[in-house]
Amino acid sequence: MDKTAFLILGLWAAGVTSSVVEKRLVPAITCPDTEKRYHVRVVHYFHDGKSMTCGGTLIHKRWVITASHCYVGRDGTLKVEIGGHPKTAVKKQLLIKKKNIRVYAENLREPIMLLKLPEAVKNIKPALLAPGDCMAPTDGEELKVSGYGATTAEGGEGVKDLMCLEVKTLSKNHCPDLSGTNYDKFTYIYCGGGVGGAEIKACQGDSGSGFLKKELISKPALYFWSKEKTADVLYGVLLSGQDACEDKFVFVDLCAKKIKKWIDKLVS
Asked: Which of 35, 122, 233, 256 is 20 to 30 A (C-alpha) from 211?
């Protein structure tokens, strides 16, 4: 990660207290133990012993959504690690067979994929998908993203604690200049910026993580009354931080009609 601010704010978490760094760090927090348990690690293990790690979101007892670049093809195996947060939780790795890797293929434009787990996840409540014909978050709306990404600008090991960060939504028209980047070709995207003008970066290990908002949702109850409760609703998948730390926060818009229809069809 860079010496400014990071999605997982690894330098802060590691106890770096340089006065130069302190002036520019985002005041992040470790995700509370009771939250973000649906955050998973998606790990591609190569045949040469190396690996690549992404984030992902459990959206159903049998389904995880993440960025498609987290699967590198037949050179190795893909596994999903659940139960990584909090640190005291029991971790479990599930092997994902090729037939259960579903990459969104509408003109090969939007880089997301769904992973069907070999067994239902127990004791972890999935994040919710936005219901019906949803809309992307509006400009300036603050949502939360989490990650275990690398702790230096050069990459390297991620942090042990899952870190959470509030990010301000920027519509595609208000994204920083994406020309010449891999993101320029994507249609259904929007961006994120630092709250209060803070400098933020996404790093290796963060890509694929979910962009979520707490919302009041109605749940059917007895005698036809509905009951409201607060839940984490998923609106985007982070693309940034695939290879190195970067200050462009780019998300796939999961409310885009074609994408939403594809997800709903598979998950239902």
From this structure: 122
